[in-house]
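G., before I forget:
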Amino acid sequence: MSQIIRKQPQGKTLILHIGDHKTGSTTLQNAFATGQVFVEGARILYPADLNHNYLLGAFRAEAADQTSFFVPRPGRPDLAQLRAQIEATDANYIVISGEQFENLAASDFKRVTDRWFADIVDRIRVVAYARPHAQRFISNFAELVKIGAIEGGMDAYLERILETGRYHFATRFGLWREAFGDDFLLRPMIREQLFNGSVVDDFAHYAFDELPVRLGEFAIDNQSTGLSELMFLKFIQDRFDQSQKFIRHTMAREIVRYMGTFGQGKTSEKLRLHRALATDLRALYWEDARALDKAFFQAAPLFETALEEACEAATEVPVSLEPADYYTAEELRYLGALREILWDAMQTKKNWPAIFHNNRVQSLHSDAVPQVDAASYHKPA
Amino acid sequence: MAKTLIIHIGGHKTGSTTIQEAFAAGQVRLEGAHVLYPARLDHNYLRADVLSHINSTPLPARGPRMLSFAQLAKRIGSAKAKYALISAEYFETVDADVFKQIVEHHFAPVVDEVRIVSYVRSHVPRLLSGYSEALKIGWFQDGIEAFFEKTASDGTLHYAPRFAKWRAAFGDAFVLRPMVGQQLVGGSVLEDFIATAFAGERIAALPDRVSNPSLDLKDQTFVQIMQEPFQKRQNWFRHTFGWELARQLQTIPRDPGKAVQPRPLDRNITRRVVETYRADAAELDAMFFDSVPLFQDALQEAITTAPETAVTCTPEDVFHPDMMRNIHALRAVLCDVFEARYNWSAHFHGQRIRAVEHALAETRRDVSPT
């Protein structure tokens, strides 16, 4: 007679999800913040009302042995409160998630997590997702347009990222592996490679030791903004100047969130690279893609193939980034009037970023889940 | 020098804003005579003073530049200007006898002559313009037919009995001008007003723009969408928000390739309107316009020009689904924004005043000697 041996959670595990940006972090965080991830035979603690991006400053200060002036509040515990919660909990898994952590040096992150948490948990795991270079490039650029943080086109953006080395994944993730060894897990943000084709399913599957997982209903953050939607947001952002960075960011998130509640856009054209830029990206990141595939994905040519695919999907000429090419003068007159009223309201001395952020949190935790197709996520593991 | 007070009492939707903004911005000048216009925008705020007079209650507190009847009289009495102008279309709704008491009490002692000037617009355009305004200020969200029924029952467009009272109270000092056909001097309500109110004076300067033009069909649908979530907010919020929306729309040039499409009134409703107001038009013509059938002809013409079928203009007819989504998303964000504790009504109204004051400063700069 055969006996089924079921896996059991082992001790107390702290799981740190560090992004990257543009790899489905918001949807993942929505699922955890609303308690919609259930692991069979295990309990999860997610100590935040949204995510842990707010801790970036505290991590930086700690890493530099400086004092952080972060003031905690409900739903946003500081490091000391987190430590106390983790110590007190009988949960098997504690999840901390912030794609902003991608901006920290792995060694600094390790030093801070060791200092605050190593002695109170049995294991610390770090999980990251990497999105293929060209796709990440487009997605990041679109996000910058959306939040009004870039003025030039995609070619100008390429100049900007070349200075940062941000897309040299093999080097960056190599440092995380160096810091955390086998406790660092890198997953490819490639739909066919993800468990059940979804980042939430994938994370839940791999982070919780492949225990059976059930997902409830949660708000899916649809990052795949169509080109005409993007140009609408650009048109709004064009009224604001760079001094209002946080207003622009949080306001854009609110507009996009509301757009999501009104269903999908009818115009399906997406932002795409043009051939020359795709070719440049392939040349620039070819070696990095190969190194990443070799180091993290058993030499399966995932990131290498993705660069090729980006070239094939590219347009012959650059797509227009002028709102007037997507909306008639008449439509822009209406949007212009609303933009002006919104801009004017934003000039009143209110803490709009906090108000927008608070609205987002409240909306997430309200009973009304936005009308999105969550059916594909509603499956037992 | 004899001093004349002109009181412009509207009516609503007859170009009052154009007259008021032109005087508030100092854009109207007469050769050899000065006009005192003691308001930042208009005198509609005097509603509180009228109610206070009727009810014998104290005046509410308000800003120092919103002069009461008594303060206005003092100001006009001490001014050197040959003319003083008070303008509020709200006055058209005041009982003429009550208004006469106010005028006699406050202004008769300080001026030599008082003239009351009003405009009256033919029934069908007035109905359409009133509907557009009601949509704009968010006080009405239903269809044009419902608006017709509402106005038919509240008497807004039954002109003759109302103006008869003004004539009875003020005699020849009450002048009613027809905003119909080709009757206006220069084809403009502002020029006509100057010719009527300051008869014999020559115009030195006039502005070149019309204020608060009626919204076209698509604009009306747009403001209707925008006002919909604010139906539970106070009238004054919706009023000022609607004005701000329209002001912003007016500052952005229209696509020159697209013709402005006024809202048509289909033949069936037009017939009902004509039947409702036929007697009123005849009475008005007889009483004020030497029986020249100005208002009767205007009604007849409305039937001739009305389209056979009704024009539908639901939001879905007017805007592409993606535009609807964009508008709804911005509207939702604005709803949240206007939830913040702040006097948004005062803010919107202030925007309008600031725009007029900006124009006034420009006028002063233009006319001051260098």
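The interface with chain A takes residues 218, 222, 226, 244-245, 248-249, 251-255, 257-258, 319-334, 336-338, 340, 342, 344, 347, 351 of chain B (CB under 8 Å). Chain B is about 50% helix and 10% strand.

More on Monday.
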